[in-house]
Specification:
alpha+beta; globular; 3-stranded antiparallel β-sheet
């Protein structure tokens, strides 16, 4: 968790701890909207619209299928 905080302070937008069941969801860096909700070993919810945040419209780079 300390490494995650260090990455965020260094300016990284998406930093996650590995192999832990909590704190692995993806939120929009611009507005904080929940974009990807993960279950422990998989995807629970994908909340994107054409690769963009549905709340503020900012582009979220990645491969979304």
């Amino acid at each position: 968790m300390r490494a995650k905080e260090m990455g965020r302070k260094a300016g990284l937008r998406y930093v996650y701890p590995g192999n832990v069941p909590q704190d692995s969801d993806t939120c929009c860096y611009n507005c904080g909207e929940l974009l990807v909700k993960r279950a422990y070993l998989g995807l629970e919810t994908l909340n994107l619209k054409d690769g963009r945040c549905p709340a503020c419209g900012v582009e979220i780079r990645g491969v979304w299928q």
